[in-house]
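INFO batch 0412 | record 1 of 1 | parsing
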Amino acid sequence: MKADIPLTYSPPVANPDIEIIKKTLPAKPGGEQECILQADQPSPRQLVNLSKLRVLVVTAEASWHPDYDWCTVAFLRQAGVDSTLISLKEVNIRGNGHMFFLEKNSDAIADVVRRWIEG
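INFO prediction complete | emitting tokens
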């Protein structure tokens, strides 16, 4: 439960490696990345500074991100952050990597994001 910048948990955490009890979920079928979440007991700590935000994670089939982005969303939800995962493949936008703005169909991807923002 580390990040590039410090995360503010409630109740507070001084050392996440010791104080946050973890559970591991197996990788998704065809994936290699296990998912490490907070254990159900004690109650998962909340990310209080992010709890007022809506977060969107968008994945594409030709990227390596779908292997673990589902876990990122699960972790955020568990920590009280309103998070949504959209797979471009599941909304019939196919073949993309993770550099959406460079794709020929970047306008279609932007439309998916716009609709999420407006929704």
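INFO post-check: The chain has a mean pLDDT of 92.
INFO record closed
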